Structure formats: C-alpha cells, structure tokens
Amino acid sequence: MLTPDQARDRAADIVARAVTAGADAADAVFAADAALELSVRLGTLEDVGRSESEELGLRVFVGQRSASVSTSDLSADAVAALVERAVAMAREAPEDRWAGLAPQERLMHGAPPLLDLDDGGTLSPADLREAALAAEDAARAVPGVTNSEGGGASSSRSVWALATSHGFAGAYAATGYSLSASVLAGDAASGMERDYAHHSARRHAHLDSPEEIGRRAGERAVARRNPGRVASGAMTVVFDPRVGSSLLGHLTAAISGQSIARKTSFLLDALGTQVFDSGVSIHDDPHRPHGLRSRPFDGEGLPVSPVALIAEGMLETWLLDSGSARQLGLEPTGHAARGVGGGPGVSPSNLYMAAGHVPVETLIVDIADGVYVTELIGQGVNGVTGDYSRGAAGFRIVGGQIAGPVAEFTVAGNLKDMFRALTPANDLVFRHGYNVPTVRIDGMTVASG
C-alpha cells in the first residue's frame, strides 16, 4: 500500500493534469484500503476474506459547471482518459452558482494534529481466527446460550488523501480492528432470542478482549429469553447507549447544510434556540486521539476543531460544507465529508452527548411503568416533520427497577418533543463513532405489537 505522502502526491498529480487539460479548478481524492476478515461458527472456520483496493476520484470545475468521475484503474492511460472525460463532462454540465472549492484563505496549512490513528500493525488469519474462536467460545459458555450465529474478527489499514488546485494537499493513514460475537438463547418451544456484542478500535491494544466480547453477547441473549408484551399508552422510555446514539444521527441530519438549504428539516428555524433541555450538551471532536471518526482535516481541506453543536440545550451551529454555506450566506464549518465519487456532503466526526449528573439507577428510580429499549427496528423517522416511530425490544421498567424482557412494541413521538424531554445519565463511555450515555425521554407513546 502507498504511504500517505505517496497518496497525497498521486492526488496532487491528477489535479495538476486536470488544470492543464482546461479545468478552472479541481480537487481529487485518493483512497487505498487493505482488509482481512474472518468468521467462525460453532468452533469451525466459516469464511476468510481479503480485499485490497485503490481508487481515485476527480472533481473539476469549468466556470460554475462541474463534473465528478472516479476509477480503480490507475494505469497512465486510464488516468489520462479520466481527466479528459471529466473536463468534457463539466463543460456540458448545468451551471450551479453555489459550486466551487472551499475558500482558499480557510485552507489548512502547517503540520496536522497528531491523532494516533495508525498503529502500524497487521494481524494474520491465524490471529483473527484465534480471537474469533475465543469470543464465540466465551459466548457459548454462558449458561442458557443454546446456539451461535458465530464470531468474527477483522483487521484493516487505509490511506486517504485530498489535493486541491488552490493550495491544499494532505493525507493520513488509519488502522482498524474489530471483534464480534452473536449467539442465541432459548429453545424451539419457548422461542429463540438473539443478541450480540461488538467492538472496534483504531489500535489493536485498545480492543476489548475476546472473552469480554463473548461474555457480553451471551449474557445479553440470555437476558432476552421469554419476552412478554408491554401495555400500550404514554410512558417513559429509556434508551440503552447502544441505541440511544441513533438520536444523534437524527439531529445531525436535521442540522446539515443541505437539509437547511432545501428547507427539509424539522429544525429549520431552530439555530440559536433551545432544542434540548439545558442539561444536554452535544460535542463533535475530530481531534480525539485514536477516535474511530477522527480526522486532521475535512473533505475540502479545511481545518477541523472540537465544537459544541448543542451547548446547554441551545443549537449553536449548522453542519456546513462550502456549497451549502454559500447558499445560506454563511461560512463552512469544517464538516465536509468526501467519498471517492461525487462532491462533498457533511458529517460530524466523533460525536457525543456529554454525561449527565445522575447514575442510571437514579435516572429510572421514579419510573413506575416504562420501557428500557435495547434494540430499535425499522426506519420510521420523518426528517421534515420530526415524526418518530420505531419498532423496539428491551425490558420493562416497573417500580423504578428494570424487570423482565419485552418485545414487539413500538415507541413513537416527535423528535422536537423528544429532544426537549431528554435527560442523560452519567454513564457515558467512548466506544463508537457516536456515543451517548443512557438517556431517558418522558411522555413517549408505546404501542404493543
């Protein structure tokens, strides 16, 4: 695989070729990845897969017209043809007055922050097999586990580079490791219940042990045996951190520049207003060392910095790339995200809701009748109105205590109301790209399936 410097030079070279071919401006992305994945089931190796890829994406501008092309054929002839095709396509494209590269004066210069994303290591198939088997064995050893969907392990390394025609060129490398187990508990007579555990990390030394992953998967599956039904009505819903993080996804979709510019957001007029309770703050931290979504610069070459999206309940900013910023008469916020194909969109990096001040036990102690949700099903969320309805499974809350498992019910509300009624516990742990503590939302509608 190319080094970051080599990847940066590859991206800069195609940008220079595009300008020579007649483009007024251009940017290019080079992405390379090598990954090894392995799965086992019932103590037997099921699958081993290895993938390697190198891709190049080019975006060119001719006036206010633009075109994007990409290729995995990096031969000299293919790259030359790619450049000619991109410029020709741009000349025929419709004009877009918001199109263009990021403001030149805002580009990142100097040494990037040290984020510790690459441990330089690789794992062999034997290493991955040993870890996957150990995770599955630990899960199957939990009393009550009756079958297995398997264990899995992976190791990867990627390099990502961006270059623009107006003065930016940068690249970085990142490693990734993951480990998972999924098992079933119960029997044919009483019904089978499935659950899982999974962990990913940039550095192998930070990955949870196989035994911990397996034990967690097994205990979760066993706890879900023989689920009952929950009564329908208005009640308090508590979201486990595994599923509560999805609420952050609904927030970021609603405050993306594209949604605001198109007027397709339920938070359209909410900037600078109270969106959550004053006890809620939500932060984006691209500089978190070895974070799963850390990055030294955004998808347009702008510097990135930690920022509060929600500060004491107030919505502080939209998420803006250059195009949506121009359309709204604002400045880009360093949240542009880029794939190999097409232009930038927007995305946060390591997003998290700050921990609250009370433990989970205190958060639920006054709930006479509610539900603790550990699984969400379906995508019943309307980003324009904020209406929310998801299938769910989890546990009843009775008399301030988590009680028996329940399944096949729906939780519903409106995200505006849900955000204002949300209370976080103090159990925040950084395990994923989006992280939240356990959260409580009063006044939701629960309907039994």
TrEMBL record:
Pfam families membership: PmbA_TldD_1st, PmbA_TldD_2nd, PmbA_TldD_3rd
Domain Metalloprotease TldD/E central: residue ranges: 121-224
Domain of life: Bacteria
Ranges of biased composition (kind: Basic and acidic residues): 206-216
Region of interest called Disordered, as start-end residue ranges on this chain: 196-216
Residue ranges occupied by any Metalloprotease TldD/E N-terminal domain in the UniProt entry: 35-90
Residue span(s) of domain Metalloprotease TldD/E C-terminal: 232-447
Similarity annotation: Belongs to the peptidase U62 family.
Name used for this protein in its record: TldD/PmbA family protein
The organism of origin for this protein: Sphingomonas kyungheensis
